[in-house]
Specification:
Length: 270
């Protein structure tokens, strides 16, 4: 893909006020000497926002809740991995032609691999949205044995069918034995930090537990898991790794990950 560093980039979602993507990517652009600006675009009008991206020549966009699946019909092309996953979190604008990619799953797997060998491990995926599709697909590709747990039966079963794995209602999650638990829902995200996505007694010692949420840095979900003896992974690591892949797609430049990690951590600690 042709490198296209200069220009305007952004994140599209609703709500978007909590996002530290602008802080992370603007610091990365500056550190890498890329003449670019990254902004936050909160909108409930997806069709109009994508038309605006084309009209304004915005070079790249991060796509977040609730648009990761619904954005697909508005695009010209999908990367082969995004097409298989059926969800998009990254757009690249090449002369008005929009191509969708998915870096969520890759970011999650790179974060998990710092703690555990994935092949053959049993993993429960909590949630059934766009992030869960990307993470679940890459978990399966990495050789993990998956189970989907979700509050909505219809959405949970649909994702389990897509991933070719079992489904279990969220209230029965404590009945299964797993090595890894990945929480992909927005439950517990700032400013609703007291919300909790699973039964509190679901954790078992020596499980590896990851939350896709990075704000707050340590969610109530992760604090509880750690108190039960689990090895925990903050959503910060997934966020940094998926953001690094976005940076590569947009610029063709190797991302300054230490800078990205430091500036996001600083933002979360304020």
């Amino acid at each position: 893909m042709k490198s296209q560093p200069a220009g305007i980039y952004g994140v599209l979602g609703n709500p978007i006020g909590h996002s530290l993507s602008p802080v992370m990517h603007n610091a990365a652009f500056e550190a890498a000497g890329v003449n670019a600006l990254y902004a936050a675009f909160e909108s409930s009008d997806l069709k109009g926002s994508i038309a605006g991206m084309r009209a304004l020549g915005i070079r790249g966009m991060s796509i977040t809740i609730p648009f990761k699946i619904s954005v697909i019909p508005h695009l010209d092309e999908l990367d082969s991995m995004a097409e298989k996953i059926g969800a998009v979190n990254t757009l690249v604008n090449s002369d008005g032609r929009l191509k969708g990619y998915n870096t969520d799953g890759l970011g999650a797997m790179k974060a998990l691999q710092t703690k555990i060998d994935l092949s053959g491990k049993r993993c429960v995926l909590v949630g059934a949205g766009g992030a869960a599709r990307g993470i679940g697909f890459m978990a399966r590709e990495s050789g993990m044995e998956l189970v989907v747990a979700n509050r909505s039966m219809d959405r949970g079963r649909a994702l389990a069918d897509f991933l070719k794995c079992p489904f279990i209602p969220l209230e029965r999650i404590r009945e299964i034995r797993v090595d890894v638990m990945i929480q992909t829902t927005p439950v517990g995200m700032f400013p609703h930090e007291d919300e909790f996505p699973v039964p509190a007694d679901v954790f078992r010692k020596e499980m590896v537990v990851m939350d896709a949420i990075y704000n707050p840095l340590e969610t109530r979900f992760l604090k509880t898991a750690r108190a039960h003896g689990c090895d925990t992974i903050s959503g910060l690591e997934m966020f940094i790794h998926q953001g690094a892949e976005q940076f590569r797609l947009w610029t063709g430049v190797n991302p300054p990950m230490d800078v990205m990690r430091a500036v996001v951590r600083k933002g979360l600690e304020k």
